[in-house]
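Just wondering, does anyone understand these tokens?
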Amino acid sequence: MSTGLARAGVRSVARITARPDGRGGTSLPVLESEGSFAVRRTRAARHGEARVMLVGAMTGPLGGDRCSVEARAEPGARLHIGSVAATLALPGQDKEPAHHDVRLSVGDGARLDWLPEQLISVDGSDLRVTTRVDLAPGAHLVLREEQVLGRAGEGPGRLGSRLTLRRAGRPLLDQELAFGPGAPGGWDGPAVLAGYRALGQLVVVRPGFETDKPAAEVLDGPVTGALTPLAGPAVVVTALAPDALTLRKALDVALHRLA
């Protein structure tokens, strides 16, 4: 996110709780951070919404770092979380992998938008990302993940990610990806990335999709991807692109259409 010096083995956490304020808006009774994170409330784009930005106070994550974000949108709240810049996964003196854990909870009638900037896997880095989302039956979720494998002219580091969504306690989506040196063979082959270096997905869960859910389709344009309905009121858009800008444009089109 932001530049600066960092130590291996940093422990960082951000905690956010959103709650209806009783006046048609959303309050933030919990907005706290420590370590390499800072959290800031900013001007909301939609009425009734609380908007929070994650700010990196140090470079990283580096090898051995452990970062976590815990966010809860209580019933009826509207919470938007973004970040001010891309996150760079960097090599560090500690040869252990870095870990970045995200835990999101969305109550009935609440909406949570999780829209951070890209994660860039730098050559020599090793990062494991775990995202877990727990949704009430009437929850609305918009979640975007974007990963860029290597900076210009370099290869990627090792990157593993797992995304798990549960709705009303039942599995909605559970997927795991691994790229870079040491990942299972074929990750860069024609059946997976096919040479692309930017990949992302957009997951949208809406109660209205119970009765009116978009049909499956292949994405048009300079990306390779698809819109896939899930077994529930949800869809996932997956895309591969030659660069981060092209990927973001494709996901923005899907976001405008679905969210």
Observations:
- The radius of gyration is 18 Å.
- The chain has a mean pLDDT of 92.
- The first strand starts at residue 11 and ends at 20.
- Residues 126 and 158 are 5 Å apart (CA to CA).
